[in-house]
Amino acid sequence: MTRYVVQRLGQMVPVVIGTTFLIYALVWSLPGDPFAAKCGDRPCPPTYVARMTAEYNLDDPLPLAYLQYMGNLFTGDFGQTFAGVPIADELLQRYPITLKLTVLAILVELVIGVAAGVLAGIRRGGFLDNLVLVSTLVVVSIPVFVLGMLAQVTFGVRLGWFPVTSDGTLYSLVLPAIVLGSLSLAFVARLVRANLVENLRTDYVRTAVAKGLTRQRVIGVHTLRNSLIPVVTFVGADFGGLLGGAVVVEGIFNIPGVGNMIFRGINAHEGATVTAAVTVLVLVFLFVNLLVDLLYAVLDPRIRHV
Amino acid sequence: MRGSARRGAMAAAALGLTLVLAACGGDDDNGDGGSGSEGTGSSDGPTGSVSINSTQPENPLIPTTTNEVGGGNIVDAMWTGLVSYDPDTAEPGLAMAESIEPNEDFTEFTITIKDGWTFHDGTPVTAQSYVDAWNFGAVGANAQLNQYFFGPDGANIAGFDTVAGQTDDTGAFVPGSATAETMSGLVVVDDKTFTVTLGSPNSLFETIIGYSAFYPMPESFFTDQAAFIEHPIGNGPFEFVEEVPNTSINLKAFADYQGDPKPQVENIEYRIYADLDAAYADVVANQLDILDKIPPVGLAGDVWKTDLEGRSASAPLTTRFTSMTFPLTNTEVWADPNLRKAISLAIDREAVIAAAYGPGNYVPATGWVPPGNDGYVEGTCGEWCEFDATKAQELYAQTAGVEGTLMIASNSDGGHREWVEAACTSIRETLGVDCQGDYDPDFGSFRGRVNANEIMSPFRTGWVADYPSIQNFLAPLYTANGSANDGGYNNPEFDALIQQAAGLEGDEALDLYNQAEELLAEDMAIVPLWYDNGQRGWSDNVNEPGFTWKGYVDPLSITVK
After folding, report:
1. Nearest CB neighbour to A93, from listed B12, B14, B18
2. Cβ atoms B414, B431 nearer than 8 A
3. Rg (CA), chain B
């Protein structure tokens, strides 16, 4: 177990270096001068451009600038945004909000998704089953930003049930979380349903039923637990997707999270900001996936990490 | 889907800035007033709270380095300069200045400031506050974004060169190259008086110093800049309360404000939006009080008129001008004025506006200066700005013509692709020339190419005035050394007229500016396209707000219902 974890942690090092270098190189090599748009329709004073160029080592060759950047990063210095704000501060303010949004979205997809999947699975071919299949198909086929704007106009502007935009408080994140989680919700429901249907036909379920266990226990403990393994894999991988997908949803609902920060950073050619935010994103993603792999052992005793 | 392009434009306009940890919200050092915001208001005190859309300020809230809208609006609410502009007429008038006395030839000004003004921290505003702030802005080592306002391109204060120092090839300030720390042109006479000597005559000095770069700064700024950035201190109608990072910047009425009119609203929240669409949804749902610009999602099909029935308005903006510029220095292709005129004649401005922005949402330009500015004369451009297919074809036939495809360069976001396509259609149908857009994905990449003088075909140029004067629409843009002369237009006669006008006052000066503008019509190196209209909306909680000459919310006009 420990050896497995150490091995996995070791694998993270090249992944982190590779991704950050790619992101760093890509953002700084975006076409156009990052300071060209800072002064409206006239060039910025040369003193300003020179000061900024020096501050971000933009005159150095890319690998050297990257090394300088990473060196600072590992001593805890995340650098500054163009506006002169420490990036670390900004990350600390924004990550909790995005994490809240993501966790809410996962709750939405797990609670509703699993429930819908189970209901559909135990009455295969019934009305509920068809309802779930059709409605998830609809959700899957609509792009998330359409869904987001639709939800915003309907539940925010017209009905007034939710705030139209979010300031990062929990309640104001509910509607965005439902939107963000809806796509995965559909996948989860279908995954659970398919696995449940399959597992209900296995020998051990027949044995359990023959033993005289209640239907509740057969489905709740014996079948569902086994059916959840692929769901856990999916949710683990999806966690990263949701963090990234937050870029769109955060834009629609004006949520002051990381997605907004990355998007602004890309638009403004702020390599340091984007790389810092993405580095943390990559780390979170890697750790969650490690956690998921460890969780397998809990759910399925046949899997053992050595 | 157009949504993503819009979002790109908006987000590009906003950068991350987080000045303050919430901690500093508590130390409002101004003891008097503003303790209980609701319920206690006496009949004439400021009451209520409002929210206004904003973008994240891109720079610290220091007037000499704030040059964009997000920070600019907040700085303007927090400071009052010597001169301010009338929100309706854009006419400059004395604000904190008691008097501004020029000498004969407008090279020396004696400025007296009013008594009793204080900064938000209680320290008095003196002549020194102004002189120190201006010197700070001009000193090369400080690398302030608004530095040029003190140099030849702006007020041109004597001794600017000595403090600005030298820059090396990369533009970096050479340490030690400044021979002085203060400009010799600024002399403090006493607490209330100082004199300003200019490097060249400038009758517009009084107008220019209304710009935010000329605001005064409290002593504490020069001793502890970091603390100031966390809690900026001005002398204007509203004082800084707190910044909720990435969410809002909150101001409240300054109880000791000496200016007139007084604030009528107690609290203002500048709410930060990364995307204007979200702000639009908020104002429709009455969750945002004032929106100073309706995004395309609202303009499309004029839905904003029904969404915001009875709480929206549209008005011409005096500050914005969009044009198309021919590059003259990096290629010979556009050297023939008749070719430039033919292309201008071939653009049906009315139709292009209708196709790109909705009919009547912008105003076809008839000159290089929008109406509402001092010195505006209608129709300077004359026949050359009016669509005339026959004349365009005749004129075009006399020229060498365009070889291959006519490219129009622009950034594709912010609604620009739409008008370029429409203009190309107009040109193609009129002249039979193949015409295409040459796009950059965003404003930054596009300006990068313009600044590097790389574009060899006509390209989009826009201008937002710094101060309301015909001079600001001509001098920086079309004089040979102008800081925003993108096309390399060079007409010595034009330069001479502008220079001469700077030494004159009133109608005499305006007359020369008009003569200069007429030269632009002869050359047609810059093709006027249109002036902007501003559409805005507000919530049921507030009365119709007023807007400044720049087209942004005038915080002093806000009243709650």
Report:
1. B18
2. no
3. 24
A residues 259-288 lying closer than 8 A (beta carbon) to B:
260-261, 263-265, 267-270, 273
Å between B168 CA and nearest CA of chain A: 9
Q: What's the pLDDT tens digit per position in B53-62?
A: 998 888 889 9
Question: Which residue did the predictor score with more confidence, B193 or A164?
Answer: B193
In angstroms, how far is the first alpha carbon of chain B from the final one?
Answer: 39
Do residues B16 and B56 lie in contact, with contact meaning Cβ atoms separated by under 8 Å? yes
The pLDDT assigned to B5 comes to 41
Round to whole Å and give the CA distance between B96 and B354: 44
Residue among B392, B390, B378 nearest B344 (CA): B392
Q: Residue A40 is nearest to which of B67, B247, B446, comparing CB atoms?
A: B67
Per-residue pLDDT band at A278 (split at 50, 70, 90): confident
Q: Do B464 and A40 touch (CB under 8 A)?
A: yes
Would you call the peptide bond into B261 cis, given omega within 30 degrees of 0 as the criterion?
Answer: yes
pLDDT digits (tens, 9 = 90+) for B372-417: 887 888 888 988 999 999 999 999 999 988 888 999 999 887 778 8
Which amino acid is it at B489? Answer: Y
Substitution target in B451, B453, B478, B483 with the highest count of A β-carbons within 10 Å is: B451
Optimal mutation site among B18, B153, B445, B485, interface A, most CBs of chain A within 10 A? B18
Mean pLDDT of all residues in B182-208 = 92
Residue B83 forms beta bridges with which residues? B94
**Of the given ranges (B17-31, B135-149, B173-187), which has the lowest mean pLDDT?**
B17-31
A50 touches chain B (CB under 8 A): yes
Q: Closest chain A residue to B286 measured between Cα atoms?
A: A157
Q: Nearest CA of chain A to the CA of B311: how many Å?
A: 16
B96, B102, B124, B186 from B111: Cα distances, Å: 10, 9, 17, 11
Q: What is the DSSP letter of B173?
A: B
Question: At a CB cut-off of 8 Å and minimum separation 6, what does A59 contact?
Answer: A53, B170
At residue B296, the pLDDT reads 77
DSSP string, B499-547: HHHHT--HHHHHHHHHHHHHHHHHH-SEEEEEEEEEEEEE-TTBPPPPB
Distance CA A247, CA A98 (A): 10
In chain A the first and final C-alpha atoms are separated, in Å, by 5
Radius of gyration of chain A (CA): 24
Residue of B nearest to A256 (CA): B246
What 3-state DSSP class applies to B553?
strand
Burial tier of B546 (Cβ tally within 10 Å: 0-12, 13-18, 19+): middle
- Determine the distance in angstroms separating the CA of A164 from the nearest CA of chain B, rounded to an integer: 6
Question: In this structure, which amino acid lies at residue B168?
Answer: D
CB atoms within 10 A of CB A111: 13
Report the predicted TM-score, pTM, of the whole model to 2 decimal places: 0.79
Nearest CB to A94 within list B147, B246, B441: B246
pLDDT in tens, B247-267: 899 999 999 999 988 999 999
Which residues of chain B does A159 touch, with a Cβ-Cβ cutoff of 8 Å?
none
b/e per residue B408-441 (b: at least 16 CB within 10 A) = bbbbbbbbbbbbbbbbbbbbbebbebebebbbbb
Closest CA to A67 of A124, A17, A115, A127: A17
What is the least distance, in Å, from the CA of A108 to any CA of chain B? 23
CA distance A166 to B272: 11
- ipTM surpasses 0.90: no
The average pLDDT across B439-453 equals 83
Q: CB–CB of B434/B428 below 8 Å?
A: yes
DSSP string, B194-233: EEEEBSS--TTHHHHTTSGGG----HHHHH-HHHHHHS--
